[in-house]
Amino acid sequence: MTNNDTRSIAFAAAMDGTAIAIAEQLKQTAFGEHNMLVYPSLTTFRNAYSIYAKFALEEGNEIVMLVPFYETTDSVEMNLHKNGIDAVEYLNNGSLIIQDSAKRYFALGLSDTDFLLKRISNEVMELVKQAEYNNKSGVSIIADIGSFFHFGQLHELVAYETMLPQKFDNNIKAFCAYHLANFESMHNQQKYTLEHAHYRKVPEV
After folding, report:
1. Cα dihedral 98, 102, 108, 112 sign
2. Which end of the chain lies in a sparser environment, N or C, as judged by fewer CB atoms within 10 Å?
3. Residue pair 1/8 in contact by the 8 Å Cβ criterion
4. What pLDDT does residue 47 have?
5. Rounded to 5 degrees, what are φ and ψ at 78?
6. What are the start-end ranges of the E strands in the chain?
7. Average pLDDT over residues 58-78
8. Are the beta carbons of 101 and 71 closer than 8 angstroms?
9. Residue 204 — very low, low, confident or very high, per pLDDT cuts 50/70/90?
């Protein structure tokens, strides 16, 4: 057993059961799904995406994009390293992308949703092409939506999510991650609309 394996097992053993349950449900999803992930705390979210990223990178042979909002990109990289993932190597070979949520969605200001959808769709399609070129099985994206709440763009968020299909016709697994406090701050109709804009909600209870 390598030092990385030992560190990974010790780290996983310290994780809360909710994070492990979420990660296991993420593993059961299929390419093409556009899903919602609602997490109760940043600690749980960090543990869950670490478990899933390790699985997707090492066993799934996927490209993984992580889009944090409530932590820095450097923090995500360090967290992955603690979980036995050679984040630097994966970043260097293009298998791992870490991008700040505010920059991803609002780099060009508070854009209209049509423009945002077109820009993000083009970026994702480039990742799909990259995965095919490098003989990867597909692309997993876990994107924290917290930036929309931070900038007060809930109307734009609902519009953006409902413009995306529940199922994609390519090898993408998309997880839109919502902090539970943000999700619960919305009106019931907004929550209902967002839930039904996705193929499934994780965790399923």
Report:
1. positive
2. C
3. no
4. 95
5. -65, -40
6. 34-39, 62-67, 96-98, 138-144, 172-179, 201-202
7. 97
8. no
9. confident
Distance, in Å, from the CA atom of 203 to the CA atom of 165, rounded to the nearest integer, reads: 20
Residue 152, Ramachandran bin (φ over 0: left; ψ between -120 and 50: alpha; else beta): left
Is pLDDT of 67 > 80? yes
Name 9's Cβ contacts closer than 8 Å, sequence gap at least 6: none
Q: Measure the CA–CA gap between 105 and 152, rounded to whole angstroms.
A: 13
Strand order in the sheet with 96-98: 96-98, 62-67, 138-144, 172-179, 34-39, 201-202
Which token pair is 45? 């979210």
Radius of gyration of the chain (CA): 16
What is the predicted pLDDT for the residue at 107? Answer: 81
Among 70, 96, 71, residue whose Cα is nearest residue 85: 96
Half-sphere exposure of 188 (CA within 13 A, CB side): 0
State pTM to two decimals: 0.91
The pair of structure tokens assigned to 40 is 């109760």
**111-125: per-residue pLDDT in tens?**
678 888 999 999 999
Q: What is the mean pLDDT of residues 159-163?
A: 95
**What's the CA gap between 24 and 165, in Å, rounded?**
24
